Request: fold
Amino acid sequence: MKFKSIIAAGGLLTLAALNSQAQKSAVSLWLTNADRSAMFQQQKQTLIFQAKADANPTIVIDDKITYQPIDGFGFALTGGSAIHIMRMSAPARAALLKELFANNDQNIGVSYLRVSIGASDLNERVFSYDDLPAGSTDPKLEHFDLGPDKLDVIPLLKEILAINPKIKILGSPWSAPTWMKTNGDTRGGALKAEYYQTYANYLVKYIKGFKGQGISIDAITVQNEPLNPKNNPSMVMQAHEQADFIKNNLGPAFKSAGIKSRIIVYDHNCDRPDYADSILNDPAAAKYVDGSGFHLYGGKIEAMTDLHNAHPDKNLYFTEQMVIEKDNTPTTNVSSPVRKLFIGATRNWSRNVLEWNMAADVNNQPHTDRGGCPMCQGAITVDKDNFTRNIAYYAMAHASKFVRPGSVRVASNNIETLPNVAFITPKGKKVLIVTNSGADRQSFNIQYKGKTVATTLNKGAVGTYTWD
Reply:
């Protein structure tokens, strides 16, 4: 077979070599439009880097400036989510889990999950792993049992791990057992001082119990929303209490038991970074702490950078945000969660982004009484063996499919109406997530290593651009 060739500065270039160079300069675009004309769809046209740029705004990628590594992107796998998915037929469930968790061209590759330690407010009922009749106590934890989780969360996690054995799992408690609490209630109250060590042992037993089921808990937060007594279940834990618990009980208990699961503090809104800061300023507590977790129901996402600057040796995680939208609307505001979370959190040093929550039914059920969330829409809505994809799914897909664990954020200039974030994956692929938050359709350039590609996004659109 003969190859045509052309003269180049260094000699002969075959057509095969030219095609290889063209592929390396080609940019793929996955697009979601606000009018739903494209919902996370790969565009047919191929964008090519050119030597010259036009006069439009330019996003410049500089991979010589690197920031934090990425652990992954995903959802809270609540007990309610697990119930709905486990009630699907085996073939329907397998297809759904493959779409969510497989890492290939057809699926979105979710790589991180958050589970509740005991019940969250999106369970059918409240429970802990050591529930007793009123007036009883169990300081030796002889009645400890993973209970309801063995019926749904654990079996579902096993099926997910069969698809992605490397998925990271974060555990978060909403409350200690009521007999350990000052108010004897699942809602509010605080952990009694005399049960600090018992509760540390309880968390050790949880991690060991899941390990016995073949499920590794990569990290735990010490308390979900420790300043919020309104959920059911919930428990208040002030910053000084959390510091004392970590340095005197939880940290030593983990060390004694040989547990490598990371300890993450705070796990609440960006309006109180001082909570995490005060714990990290306590050397006796900080030595056991990997980093801090944040939500964004209050405050500004930039608080994460402020904490990073104060404690650059500690990691940051974005552990929860509810993302909802009315069903059957003609437009989708997918730009908002992408801008606030996937761009906002990662540009402020977060190693992950977790949405709340993975699945619910058409009525946003289940949730607990006296403080459960009646409006918490799942990323998917499950109706028997059928499911629909919601705004949280599409926002997630723009990051999770391409920004694989081990990716590193790299520098890119942030244009006001074109919020963006850039990464390099472990395989060397470049990923740029951009949303048009302006009032009109915008044309702009992407510049990398002196060459540019011209592109356009409609108002409210999100684009993920990838190239080798």
The CA atoms of residues 135 and 179 lie 7 Å apart. Residues 71-405 form a domain with the TIM Barrel fold (CATH 3.20.20.80). The chain has eleven helices and 23 strands.
